[in-house]
Each structure stands twice: as C-alpha cells, then as structure tokens.
Design brief:
mainly alpha, three-stranded antiparallel β-sheet, 52% helix, 10% strand, extended
Length: 409
C-alpha cells in the first residue's frame, strides 16, 4: 500500500516509487497529517497523478505536489538539534516516561547527544553522521549495550521529529543496533541463599523480613521498597505488586504491569509477626520512612561478609530467585509471570540453567522401540520369499501349458 502510519493514531505517510534519470528505483515520501484512511487514499491518488505529470514535464521528484491542497505539502518546520532535544524531553518524555527512564534519557542528551550534534539542523543529520557518532562512543570506551541505549534515545527522538513533521524521514531507519552478547546473570545458589538468610537472622535481624521477601518473591528493589501492608493479602496468600519507588518518587511497576506473587510459607509467618509491630503503611521502613537503594547496601554487605559469600548486586537477588526456579525445573513461562517480564525473551536468559530441558529434547527422539535384529532378518527373508513366489508359480504354469500344446500337436 502507498500510504502508511507509524502508529495507529499517528499521521499518514505517502510513498511513491519511481525511476530516476539513471533508471534506478527510488522512493518519494511525504507526510500528509492525521486523517481517516479514506481521506489519505484520496490525497495519495491526487499526489500520484500530479507526481506523474511533474515527472513528464521534467520538474523532477524534488518538487512537492501541490494540487491546491496544503495539507500534504513538505514539512516546513525547522529546528536545531539542541533546541528540539529540549522540546522533545519536556513535551514527550516527561509526561510519558517513568522517572528512571527520564533520568536515563536526560543523561544521554546532556552527556552525549547534544555535545556531538550541537545546533545542527535536524533535517541535515544523516545516517553517516550517526554511524560516526556510534564509532566515536566505542573508541571512548563505552560498551556496546550503553551505546545502544544512547542511540535508542536518539532513535525515539528522531521518530517523534518525523511524527511532528520536522523530518520527512528519520535517518535512524538505516541504523541497526550493535550486536551484543546476551549477558548471563550472576546469582546465589540455594546453599548460599540459606547461608545469607541465616547470617541475616543472626547478625542483622531487623533486615531479615526484607531479605527473606527479596529472595522468595524476586521483586525489583523499587517494588520491595514501595510494598505497603494493603498489598499483602494473607487470606489469599499473595502479594499484589502495583507500585514502585525510585528516589522517593512513587510510580507503577516497570511496563506498568500489576502482578500477583504467592507468599512463601516462611515469608507469610515472618510478615504476620512484623504486621503486629507496624508503625507505617510501608512493610519495610526505617525511621518511619520507606527504604531506599542506598539504605539497603551497607546492611547487605555486612550480611554477605558474615555469611562468607561474595557480595553481588542487590538486583542479583532477583536473578537468584529466577535462576533457582529454573534449576528446580520450573517453566520459563511461570518464571516470566512471577518476574513481571512483558516479553518472554527477557526471561530466556535463564533458560540455559534448566538441567533437563536439552536432555528431554534429545530423549524425545526414537520413542518407537526398534525390532530385534533376528526379527528384522526373518522379516526380510519372508519378504524375499514372497517376492520370488509369483515368478516360480508363473514358470510352472508356462511349463504346464507348453506340455499341453505338445500333446495336442
């Protein structure tokens, strides 16, 4: 189809393919704004007719079809990159993104994108410049994943510039993300987890409920800190994960997905004991305030030292929860739902830990039992005998007929 939309509620685009003076196929693209599909098709037909007439007259593809209708004229908006980045952040990122995502994008813009593209006009930025930017960031020592994240911010920004008609076509369409190796999660084994929780109970008992909840639910740190008593359903034996804290700002969980996580029996007993002493609406708090990422780090370091295990990141407790489930033979789908991943591909980083998944796959072959060798030989001999028998019978019949003819003769 010659018309298309980037998003369901976004503007329509018209694509017209043509051959240039050298006989090579090229594409002419224009934004025609937001309207119904029927209206877009009508404008597309008029543009195609006028485009064909202009090509015949030699005016070329660079001329914008007019047909007396300004609604599909070429975008006339102009903006410097630095100015548009600020407008995009305030108009689109701030209202639509979570605080953590806003902080990441702000850093990408301030530290990397604006210092490189500066006040270049948006329409002048090319795919080649973007590839040069990528190469520069790699030479500066940034890893591929970080560069992909920065370029992802640029991709989203220029896509919105296209929607807002600052660009006819984003140069990012030709840029592919750098290939990276899927990281394998670091995690604690079941034995290490038991040692950590035992050391926590003995040395840092005030933190026991928090870390027991972390290891038995796999909640993100922000979800743990935001957990309130009204989110604990003792009757149904589950936690309702519907909020998250980031630097004291409360929001929804990642991907805005509310989920339910079953209570481990030991966690249920521990939380019931804590509920009797509650002083705030938060399940885990310090001095009447919810916990923060920084307030959890030092206690965890002391607990790991007491347990004699390596101190991993706090987020690796979540990896430990998922990894141990997979090692114990639980399905990837179940782990995905418990972790709250919107895409199962995110959960697949744990798939290699399953001890039986590959063996079970191989064992599924040759499920029909092979006949014994003696049975196979006997069967083959019988088949050969059956195959020769018609020939023998036919030969005997021929001899009998020959004898009858000779007698009659």
């Amino acid at each position: 189809m010659a018309i298309r939309q980037r998003t369901k509620a976004g503007p329509w685009y018209v694509d017209i393919s043509y051959r240039d003076e050298n006989g090579k196929w090229k594409k002419f693209t224009r934004t025609i704004g937001k309207m119904t599909k029927k209206q877009a098709l009508q404008i597309e037909r008029r543009m195609r007719q006028e485009f064909k007439a202009q090509r015949i007259l030699g005016t070329g593809p660079g001329t914008t079809p007019s047909a007396g209708n300004q609604s599909y004229a070429a975008p006339a908006k102009k903006a410097a990159f630095s100015g548009f980045a600020k407008t995009w952040f305030e108009t689109y990122v701030r209202p639509n993104n979570k605080p953590s995502a806003r902080a990441n994008k702000r850093g990408h813009i301030k530290l990397h994108l604006v210092p490189y593209f500066k006040d270049s006009e948006l329409a002048s930025i090319t795919a080649e410049q973007i590839e040069q930017f990528v190469a520069l960031k790699l030479t500066q020592g940034l890893n591929k994943k970080t560069v992909n994240n920065i370029v992802g911010t640029l991709r989203t920004m220029l896509a919105k510039a296209e929607d807002w008609e600052y660009l006819e076509r984003s140069p990012m369409r030709r840029i592919k993300p750098l290939k990276t190796d899927a990281p394998r999660p670091r995690f604690y084994t079941s034995e290490e987890t038991a040692r950590i929780l035992e050391a926590c109970r003995a040395k840092e008992s005030a933190w026991y409920g928090f870390f027991l909840c972390a290891f038995t639910t796999g909640l993100r740190l922000g979800e743990l800190c935001a957990l309130q008593w009204r989110d604990v359903d003792f009757q149904a034996g589950k936690l309702i994960i519907q909020r998250s804290l980031w630097h004291g700002i409360e929001g929804t969980p990642k991907s805005h997905r509310i989920r339910e996580v079953p209570l481990h029996p030991r966690l249920e007993t521990t939380l019931k004991a804590l509920e009797k002493e509650k002083t705030t609406k938060y399940v885990f708090s310090k001095n009447g305030k919810p916990l923060t990422r920084n307030s959890c780090r030092k206690p965890f370091a002391r607990i790991c030292a007491a347990a004699g295990v390596e101190e991993l990141r706090l987020h690796d407790i979540r990896h430990s929860f998922a990894s141990q489930l997979v090692i114990n033979g639980k399905s990837i789908k179940a782990v995905q739902e418990l972790l709250g991943h919107s895409d199962i591909q995110t959960t697949m980083i744990y798939a290699h830990l399953s001890p039986s998944v590959h063996q079970d796959a191989v064992n599924s072959l040759l499920t029909v039992e092979e006949p014994k060798i003696s049975d196979k030989l006997e069967s083959n001999q019988q088949n050969q005998h059956d195959f020769k028998r018609p020939k023998i019978e036919k030969s005997q019949q021929d001899q009998h007929l020959t004898g009858l003819v000779q007698v009659r003769g």
